[in-house]
Inverse folding.
């Protein structure tokens, strides 16, 4: 058996049981979104080499919007979903965060919250989770697989596919697929699409696997509930023009009227720590700390309660040995 075929057969652990993938594949045009980390971004690939979503042969005209960002997990996926997908929902979403997720409860809740948000879109998009891993097998796939099984989603396990090929046929380092690696991931997705051949009854969202009460706690309710309802963003910064706070950067100031301000931020991964000081009306400065873990800086959140009225909020760097990267601000009326 050809290595692509063997890899794909081993990697596809479960077909879609929601009926959504079949329905998406019947549409005259397919709108695809990609949420993930450096694997989906195509890190280490040359400009001439395409990452896996671009290599799949779709049975109809299609568009692909990629929001993959190196070093991010499902928490940033939720932010990007609200920023880019809520007002223009896709028909199909690839979700690839397993290799960046910590296999602990809070990140897992963020992952389930992301899936529920995507599955609640009026377009009823199909969701294809892709579970990648490092060379030593490190990944949050074990817990994320159970979440996906609960929701009847298809499962593509790169670790299972890798049992059929040597690591260097997949990657030139310890995690990022090379040209051949992306071809193997695409082959697994292609097999999944080819085997999605019959309609299924519509499947209602199940009860949250990790507990409804936890899904409504911070930070998940900010990202999946209140933020998208009636709380407009004050400012939003796209991936390529995020605000960078450095020791020489002037203070960022803005006026807000609401009950709380939300900061979504992360630190550049080329340094160890960065601090910023948040001040409201010149009083009660709050220190916000960003730190890189395991070589990358996943996003962090900070919600600051405000009394009634209009307030001046300032954000300035403090004790930075690197860059404090601000992704977005929101105000809750």
């Amino acid at each position: 058996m050809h290595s692509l075929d063997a890899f794909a057969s081993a990697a596809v652990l479960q077909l879609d049981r929601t009926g959504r993938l079949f329905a998406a594949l019947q549409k005259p045009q397919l709108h695809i979104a990609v949420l993930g980390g450096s694997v989906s971004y195509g890190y280490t690939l040359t400009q001439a080499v395409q990452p896996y979503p671009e290599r799949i042969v779709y049975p109809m005209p299609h568009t692909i919007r990629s929001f993959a960002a190196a070093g991010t997990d499902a928490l940033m996926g939720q932010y990007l979903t609200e920023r880019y997908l809520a007002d223009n929902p896709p028909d199909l979403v690839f979700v690839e965060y397993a290799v960046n997720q910590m296999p602990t409860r809070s990140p897992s809740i963020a992952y389930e919250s992301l899936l529920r948000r995507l599955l609640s879109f009026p377009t009823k998009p199909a969701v294809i989770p892709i579970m990648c891993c490092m060379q030593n097998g490190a990944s949050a796939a074990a817990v994320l697989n159970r979440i996906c099984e609960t929701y009847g989603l298809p499962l593509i396990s790169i670790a299972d596919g890798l049992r059929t090929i040597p690591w260097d046929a997949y990657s030139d380092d310890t995690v990022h697929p090379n040209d051949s690696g992306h071809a193997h991931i695409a082959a697994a997705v292609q097999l999944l699409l080819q085997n999605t051949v019959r309609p299924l009854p519509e499947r209602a969202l199940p009860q949250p696997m990790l507990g409804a009460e936890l899904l409504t706690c911070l930070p998940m309710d900010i990202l999946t509930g209140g933020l998208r309802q009636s709380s407009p963003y004050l400012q939003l910064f796209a991936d390529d023009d995020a605000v960078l706070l450095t020791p020489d950067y002037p203070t960022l100031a803005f006026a807000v009227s609401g009950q709380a301000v939300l900061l979504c931020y992360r630190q550049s991964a080329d340094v160890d720590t960065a601090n910023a000081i948040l001040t409201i009306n010149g009083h009660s400065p709050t220190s916000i700390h960003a730190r890189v873990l395991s070589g990358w800086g996943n996003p962090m959140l900070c919600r600051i309660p405000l009394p009634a009225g209009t307030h001046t909020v300032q954000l300035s760097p403090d004790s930075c040995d690197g860059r404090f990267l601000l992704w977005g601000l929101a105000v809750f009326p």
Q: What stands out?
A: The radius of gyration is 20 Å. Residues 278 and 315 are 5 Å apart (CA to CA). Residues 179-194 form the longest helix (16 residues). Residues 212-241, 292-297 have pLDDT under 50 and may be disordered.
